[in-house]
Amino acid sequence: MALNKAQALFQRRLSRVVLFPILLLAGLSGVFVWQISRLLDAMQWVEHTDQVITRATQVQKLLLDIETGGRGYLLTGEQLFLGPYEKGMNQIDQAFSDLEALVVDNSEQQQRVVQLRQNQARWKAEFSQILSKQLADRATLRAFLTARKRQMDRMRQDISNFISTEEQLRTARSQSVQTLTRWVIGTTISSALLLGSILAVLLRSQLLKMTQSYRQALETAQAQTLTAQQSNQRLMTLHEIDQAILGADSLNHLSEIALARLQALISYDQGAVLLFQAEPQSAQVLATRSREQAEAAVVDHWQSLPLEILQYREPVWVISDLKALAQSLPFLETLLTQGYRSCLAAPLLAEAHLVGALLLVATPTAAFSREAQEVTREVANQLAIAIQQTRLRSQLQATLTDLEQRVADRTAELAQSNDRLAQLAAIVESSDDAIVSITLEGNILSWNSGAEILLGYSASEILGQSIDCLFPQTRSELETQMLNQIRQGRQVKHYEAVQRRQDGQEIYVSLAVSPIKNAVGEITGMSLISRDITDRKQVQEQLHLTSERISLANAELARAARLKDEFLAGMSHELRTPLNAILGLSEALLEEIFGELTDAQQEHLRTIEQSGQHLLDLINDILDLSKIESGKMELEILPVSIQALCDTSLSFVKQQAHHKRLKLDCQISTNVDEIAVDERRLRQALINLLSNAVKFTPEGGTVQLLVSPNSFHSGINFTVTDTGIGIGPDNLDKLFQPFVQLDSSLSRRYAGTGLGLALVRRIVELHGGSITLESELGQGSRFTISLPWSLPFADHLAPVLPEPDPIDLAPLPIQRALVIEDSSTAASQITRYLAELGTQAIIHPVAGGAVQKAREVAPDVIILDILLPDRSGWDVLTDLKANPETRTIPVIVISVVDERLQGMRMGASAYLLKPISRQKLQQVLSLELKSLDAMQEAGYPATCPLPPMTSPLILVAEDNEANIITLMSYLQAHRFQVILARNGLEAVQMARQNHPDIILMDVQMPEMDGLEATRRLRLDTATASIPIIALTALAMPGDRERCLAAGAMEYLTKPVSWQQLMQLLKRHIPASRFPDESPV
Length: 1080
Hints:
Strand content: 15-25%
Low-confidence stretches: 294-300, 743-749, 791-810, 938-949
Structural class: alpha/beta
Largest sheet: 5 strands, antiparallel
Radius of gyration: 64 Å
């Protein structure tokens, strides 16, 4: 290795010795070439100057020939002289051009050539004129020749000057060439001397280094040779150890041989080979060897050596001086007492597991050199391999024994499998299904008896044939696609296909196709199981035809239902509109507003009013029943006071009972207070039952309303009992059917349409309840409504306001009302009712300008019709609630359009259907008055000044009227802008439209609860950053976590602390936009 390095170093230095002179010579050659190039360039310029002088001399000679020839011809008139003249004239232009081209690098000389050429041209022109005139006058001719001589003298002088200049330039360039020649010769000689000196120095230096490197390489090679000889000797010894290990018959003998061979290489006093059983703490001494006793050694001290030192998996662990470490390692005292000072331990590792150790000790300190450590490590590796091989042989023997047992077991299993295969073959052969196996190419391999019966082919006829013959030509492509899937290893189950029998008949089958794989998992074929489903397919086709007929029938029924709904809606509008005028005018006439009436006139008007009211009730019953049957009736479930519900229901039949001298009785159990129902609909059901009881009870009888919890206290029973005519058992089934009367005599004696009880039953079922009947002819009837009983909802419970007395017409403190109504009859009726209450009515007959009118008048209440001539009342309601100056004014909708829920969702305070009565309008206005009184009692003015548009905008999502009044009044009193949403869906829409600064979100609301609304707002990028404060009255465990998880930033429980609410508002609204805290 070192010799190779020396040779490489010698080659590199020899290369440098050769390369340096070459580089210097190349540099010197470059300089010499550059100098020669300069010299040649200077010589070329000298030659160029000679050419210029030669060409100038030629021009001078040509001019002389032209002058001599022309003068001789003019003087003698002989043609002989024109020869030189014409020859010169033919060559002079080319001579001037060549001369001009040669002096292009010298502008001064070029200008002289141009001037000579111009002079020559003038002379030529003058001479031509003389020749044409052929002057005979000697005097004139002599004058011309004299002038021409002077001109030619000047031209010759100019040419002489031109040549003189060029000669001077040639002299200068010749001197430059001589100087450059001397410089090139001197430089070349100096460079050659310098190069020789440098080469001599470099060669001497490199040769000295090469000699020294070669000497060092020889010394290194000799040392490596000695080391190699020692290594060969060690390898020979190790090889002997390897051979001895391979020939050993036990681990103990193998260990003894290894220690003996190792002692020939390493000087040690005592050694041992340890074998670990399960843990390093449990060791077995396989062999020991000492210098004094070769065959056996004392091994007690090996058991005291802590073997944890070998768990670090180091190649060797050596201690050069045991005495130095005896204090920190007490276990070394045992070795020290026997005179040992050095210790060497090598772990035996097999597949990274510690299986044993090779331990050596010696009397001298530092007895084990690095070479001894290496030899010990190699011997330890060989011992570890031998131990692993011994263990593997034992494991292999156990594996062979186990394998023999498995082969025996597998042979038994194969015998059982053969039995099972025989059974399976019998099952396949006896199956009614066609079971066929085919190759990947589609050729049939097996064919059971079921296939023969189903498809008509015998096994001998079909085996080896293509499977395509079993499928119709029109379906072959589909079957081919199916087979391709199987070739790809997929399984097909319950694949419906058409197969062709031998007689040509096509049958429907259900196919189950599976791939057949060999032992290595390769697909070699496929199995097909065909089951005849022709009968089932025929039944399915019949069912499909029946389903289509049913679908057509359902579509026709849906169309009929839609036409019925459209008819009922149109009928409601067309009937309510004239009824509104009939009832309103009849009431006005009875009150003698237009003048006094006779008794007969009053009687006739009462008949008209009663008939109109009866027709209105009939319309309402028909529409309600239609809504329920079509699933369009929506219930407003709220906690309702049972006492108030019963009182208002009884008030509707009180006058009729009094007229028949009937006793009305109401009994309510003390343990029932309220129930969660749709108050208006349940009241409608109770009034129907009470009205029937009063109608069918003779004079002097009794009608009773009883309210009590059911026997399981899971619901409430409303029982109406009468002492009337009763119902026979054969008529009980007809009772709750719409438009059905019990008999014609009753139809003639008692008025009615037969809709009341049917409507009652539908309303009760919508509430999740039921109605039962007990009756006996001549004894009376007992109707019982059973409804689920809900606990009180503090969050939704509004204060129960007493119903106003229908005949109490005391003026209400509502000063002005804006009536947006296009019907003059309806407007007059509303104006009369309002005048009785002390309220001024301001009529606005169209939708246009309604908001502006409301801003100008500032009414206490707005009464709005929906069907306006120029624009929908819904648009007017939207504009009123969007305008900051009118959004807080209560709006009461009065219309023939029955869309109460839509009106309440859009912000209406109440919704009345036409025709209205004085009692209904007074009731609604009384409720609005109570709301205003509640605000004043809370310390807030009924109408707060509107905050500036720059103040924060707060969206209040709340459906409870009491909470709405309290929250909005408090916030508006503190100069906040407030907009209201009555359910979660409306809150989401208003948040997207108005982008409020903060949202107060009630958790429990209809349509969509507050948690779902919060989640939707957080998913919308336009509203995701709006702070949301969750409000609830439940405050159950986990409510706060659910609200915050949905996306709310804060959580408040009801009743709300105003101080805490203001602190949260300050936290989420910038201080620069927060209004003054002092209330208005």
